[in-house]
Design goal:
Rossmann fold; about 20% strand; alpha/beta; 17 strands; six-stranded mixed beta sheet; 13 helices
Length: about 400
């Protein structure tokens, strides 16, 4: 396999998680009785540009189909984060009624609803029909297509150049990262700003967040790699922020290389130096990740087997993609985790891909009263533990498996 940015041959492994179906390919009552398509899940590191990437097996159209069931608007903490983003961007860049905001991967309109509420013209780009329909129901104009140079040119031809583009948790999801980034350089007005948010590879490796690896994530990103990719495709990074979302994310600010006039913040240089000092441009940095990942898998499986021996019941909360990575790598089935609770009606009544664990609404948790509730989206554990605090009434306990197994008191 060759690097999807610079074309170099990939030889350095990060981790091999065996094989799994696409993490958002939830099974309906009909597809539950049909074969599933599984793909190898291996991640390699480019030793030239240091882009970390999933080995190519699944195509984008197989991962982001009409039944795609990830809806951003079901997390209250993510909605708060998005509303704060809009407030900050409006103030920082002086956005108003004569501005145009474009969000790529607009999902269910979770972010643009706050732009629309300020009467700022906006457009969402969202390729998945299920989430695009939800966004349109909020009154948000949606272009249902994949983003890249072709679509950027079409939007510009329609007079839809952008003062601000937002791309949250999508840069990792694109198979052709050069085409995707180059599209922003075309779409921006001369003084426009593009922001990108993505989980930080430094956190993924340092805190063993292996369950954020799945086929929908084609790339795993450091600022080192992103700066190089942007520079090669007409964008210049001028600022960066660190956020706690998704276990530790970066918000990168970029401008057109040819016309942008924002001064480059010292935070960019400082973070690049921190990544270098951590060893992210050396093969050694990535060498122990497989061993740490295997320990999480083994500890989690041992916990579930011991709970079963003791006659304890275990359920899970949050039918998240990261939970599917964990479940499938550890080989978990419904005999060890009886069901998964999720607030998203689009997932309820379906089954987790691979593990085939049923997904139910919260009333099932209250009636079954399991001894343990495993929080699969561990990045939302504070929110979830507050929401489900009532399990303590029957002495239920919360469990998280990543970065290490922890049974919460």
């Amino acid at each position: 396999m060759k690097c999807r940015h610079c074309g170099s041959e990939l030889k350095l492994p990060l981790v091999d998680l065996g094989s799994a179906p696409p993490s958002n390919a939830y099974l309906t009552p009909q597809t539950l009785h049909a074969p599933e398509k599984w793909f190898p899940l291996r991640v390699l590191v480019c030793e030239q540009c240091w882009l970390v990437q999933t080995e190519d097996f699944a195509q984008a159209h197989e991962l982001f189909d009409a039944e795609y069931a990830y809806f951003s608007g079901f997390s209250s903490s993510w909605l708060t984060h998005s509303e704060h983003y809009v407030t900050d961007m409006v103030a920082r860049f002086g956005l108003g009624a004569d501005s145009h905001v474009v969000e790529v991967a607009a999902n269910d309109g979770y972010l643009l609803q706050y732009v629309k509420a300020r009467h700022i013209p906006c457009t969402g780009v969202e390729p998945t029909a299920s989430t695009a329909t939800s966004a349109r129901a909020k009154g948000i104009p949606i272009v249902e297509d994949f983003f890249g140079i072709r679509l950027a040119k079409a939007l510009v031809a329609q007079g839809k150049q952008a003062d601000l583009t937002a791309a949250n948790n999508v840069l990792a999801h694109v198979p052709d990262i050069n085409d995707f980034v180059a599209g922003f350089a075309l779409l921006l007005k001369p003084q426009g700003v593009a922001t990108f948010e993505f989980p930080h590879l430094l956190k993924l490796v340092g805190e063993n967040q292996f369950d954020t690896i799945y086929h929908e994530h084609f790339s795993y990103l450091s600022l080192t790699a992103v700066e190089r990719i942007f520079a090669a495709n007409g964008l210049k990074v001028f600022d960066v922020e660190e956020h706690l979302t998704h276990g530790g994310s970066l918000r990168v600010f970029a401008q057109r290389s040819d016309t942008g006039q924002h001064m480059v913040s010292t935070k960019v240089t400082e973070l690049l130096q921190r990544e270098t000092q951590a060893g992210m441009t050396t093969a050694t940095y990535y060498s122990s990740f497989q061993t740490k990942t295997d320990k999480v898998k083994d500890d989690f499986l041992s916990f579930l087997l011991e709970a079963k021996r003791q006659g304890k019941t275990v359920a899970a909360y949050g039918a998240a993609a990261k939970g599917n990575t964990l479940m499938n790598y550890a080989g978990i089935r419904p005999d060890l985790v009886s069901f998964v609770v999720d607030r998203n009606p689009a997932k309820q009544g379906k089954h987790m891909p691979g593990s085939r664990i049923p997904i139910v609404d919260e009333s099932q948790l209250q009636s079954a009263k399991p001894n343990y509730v495993v929080i699969l989206p561990w990045n939302l554990k504070t929110e979830v533990m507050q929401q489900l605090e009532y399990i303590k009434a029957w002495n239920g306990r919360f469990v998280t498996a990543v970065p290490t197994l922890k049974i919460h008191s």
